[in-house]
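Our collaborator T.R. sent over the components below with a one-line note: 'Predict the complex.' Nothing else. No constraints on interfaces, no templates requested, no preferences about which chain binds where. So this is a plain run: every listed entity goes in together, and whatever single assembly comes back becomes the starting point for the next discussion.
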Amino acid sequence: SAVISQKPSRDICQRGTSLTIQCQVDSQVTMMFWYRQQPGQSLTLIATANQGSEATYESGFVIDKFPISRPNLTFSTLTVSNLSPEDSSIYLCSVDINYGYTFGSGTRLTVV
Amino acid sequence: LAKTTQPISMDSYEGQEVNITCSHNNIATNDYITWYQQFPSQGPRFIIQGYKTKVTNEVASLFIPADRKSSTLSLPRVSLSDTAVYYCLVGEKGSGNTGKLIFGQGTTLQVKP
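Returned assembly:
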């Protein structure tokens, strides 16, 4: 299985600012997935990031709020923009390599 | 993508076998059934995956009836460290495809001493 390094592990941000989360994979992957997990809830898929093309966003998520970069086959970033307290969640990246999906350890974001 | 339904919570005691059943009535021909485990402050971790009949690994067994409209995750002799949320997911398997994981609510398993 893949090894994913996700940074930062946690952050506290002010309203109106942005946070960029990085996800580094030890293998080349076609697609990377970004999820949000609100407190006490299940995971919700934000978008799918393909290298060399724009990310595909799920219903309720837009590029202006969650811009994603995918510069190569092992790296992706998710930015959460114009932060509000409602954005306080855990954000996780995930990849699928051959057999099952592997998840990063998550970024716990608190907006104050 | 097939929707899944699981019990919200289950309680068990150490040493018991735990069976968590998941319903997926609209499963497609190409779909696999995968179970994940999530501890607090961690990302989900792959447990087991199957297509039909029975699959067993060092952690769990997965039972899938012939109609594939449900599946049962079996955890033998649970311990306190098995306390976690367990997610049943249905989707296509393999890298390079357009499959994506859609999480349901999951089952919170509480193992008591």
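Summary for T.R.: Chain A touches chain B at residues 1, 29-31, 33, 35, 42-45, 48, 92, 94, 96-106, 108 (CB under 8 Å).
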